[in-house]
Amino acid sequence: MTGAPFGARLAAAMDAHGPLCVGIDPHASLLAEWGLPDDATGVREFALRVLEAVAGRVAAVKPQAAFFERHGSAGVAVLEEVVAAGRETGTLVVVDAKRGDIGSTMGAYADAFLRDGSPLAGDALTVSPYLGFGSLDPAVDLALSTGRGLFVLCLTSNKEGHEVQHARTEEGVSVAATMAARAAALNAGAAPLGSVGLVVGATVGDAAVRAGVDLARVNGPLLAPGVGAQGAGAAELSRVFGGARHQVLASSSRGVLRAGPDVGALRAAALRASSEAAAALR
């Protein structure tokens, strides 16, 4: 991949289309609502229909790898097709795979999802740093060298997340704040945004304040799942992100996807969600 770094490309896409990322999450329940079979053919029809509706109209799409992988090799082949189709439309593709491991295994994950020429390599990848931020080095190195980006799990909305994320080091710093500081160091000097972002749930309330995380200092994009069907609106986004609102890429999945299977209805739902996110964040 050549051209501008991911952070700059994402900032331009959010300026052009609004700060919304549409999740492509072919849950079995959604496939049933759309009248599609719960197999790789249904997943393919679902994912490509979402792309048809929103590509070129939102900043990014985010296929959730697990819902493709559950159908084995045929599902992974569909994920490859979705990544390629997104690239052809010029819409940024964030592959939501949350990979995290150590050493050569992390290197292999990086090779699969971030290497030029890999059929699974989109524009960015979600990763988990909870084997230590340094365990992500192979992904960081490959992402930055190819112009791709990372979204590092930081403050998630699941009720168990605080057990790790709010834990304190001997110096009294929360684990989440440590992860944010490491991302900030990698983004130092980047403009308008660095390429190493964080995942911060849109429904976490004052968790950033309680954990001592300065989101504005990260100088990178903040992927915010939970907008729409999961309950986060303008007030919640303002409370969570405060002065870092301009960095936020709001993610909506079910809030848009439940408008399907009609392409026009999906497009209208995505544009409405994008407008609402822009009003809250910009």
UniProtKB/TrEMBL annotation:
Reactions that this protein is recorded to catalyse: orotidine 5'-phosphate + H(+) = UMP + CO2
Coiled coil: none
Entry EC number(s): 4.1.1.23
Keywords for the protein's UniProt record, in alphabetical order: Decarboxylase, Lyase, Pyrimidine biosynthesis
Domain Orotidine 5'-phosphate decarboxylase: 19-269
First-level EC class: lyase
Annotated GO MF terms: orotidine-5'-phosphate decarboxylase activity
Transit peptide recorded as keyword: no
Domain of life: Bacteria
Pfam families: OMPdecase (PF00215)
Keyword DNA-binding: no
Active-site residues, as the UniProt record annotates them: K98 (proton donor)
Known pathway: Pyrimidine metabolism; UMP biosynthesis via de novo pathway; UMP from orotate: step 2/2
InterPro entries xref list: Aldolase_TIM, OMPdecase_AS, OMPdecase_type-2, OMPdeCOase_dom, RibuloseP-bd_barrel
Family: Belongs to the OMP decarboxylase family. Type 2 subfamily.
NCBIfam families for this protein: pyrF_sub2 (TIGR02127)
Protein name in UniProt: Orotidine 5'-phosphate decarboxylase
